[in-house]
Each structure stands twice: as structure tokens, then as C-alpha cells.
Fold NADH dehydrogenase (Ubiquinone), 30 kDa subunit.
Amino acid sequence: MTVKEEQTTISVALEDLLREVKGLQADGYRLVQIGCTDIGGAYEINYSFDKDYQFKNLRLTVGPDIEVPSISGIYWGAFVYENETHDLFGIPITGINIDFKGTFIKSGEKYPFSVTRRGGDQCRNA
């Protein structure tokens, strides 16, 4: 059996993130992953969801000092991805249901993938 998987990527503004995520949850989508990457002085955060082999991605682009609201109040398990994003990139994520405050991932360098905080301790979550 071959399944043709549809994938949609929607750019979302920071102020619309929680509304969009709530809508996906209400429509029966499950959270698959949250990934982050450096795009040259800013970050691209991709939130991936799935329902019936249809992948939907919400793409959020933020600067290094922009606070991102947690979606863990909607998808409880998101706290794992959000703590990882904070610890590796230094992105301040507010309202995480279980916030490890910078101690979730141990690395030789604090915020090893940060565009501005590499090795620093300026994260507001800590």
C-alpha cells in the first residue's frame, strides 16, 4: 500500500501562533515535532502536526530576543521540544508547563546553536 502524504507549510505570525495551534488541536491533529534552525541572525521554528497522513507545518520566524509563547498548555508533551529549543538556541519560551530553566540538555557550551548567546547566560528562562 502506498500512502501519498500531503504536506502544507503555513507561515504564522507570533501573535497568531496559539490560535493556530488551538485550531489544529480542535480539528484532531496531533503534534509530531517542533524543530528550530538558525536562518542567519534569526530563527525558524517549525511546528509539525499530523492527521490521517496529512502533515501540516506552522512556520514561525523570530529574532533572537523575541519571547515565544509555549504551546504546552494545548499539547502537554510540547514541553520536551520547547525546553530543548531553549537550551540549544537560547530562545526565551514563556509559560512552559514543565520548565527545566536551562537544565534539560547538558552540553559543553551553553546555547550551542544560538545566533547571539553562544556560551552566555543571558537567557530569561534561567
In short: DSSP finds two helices and six strands in the chain.
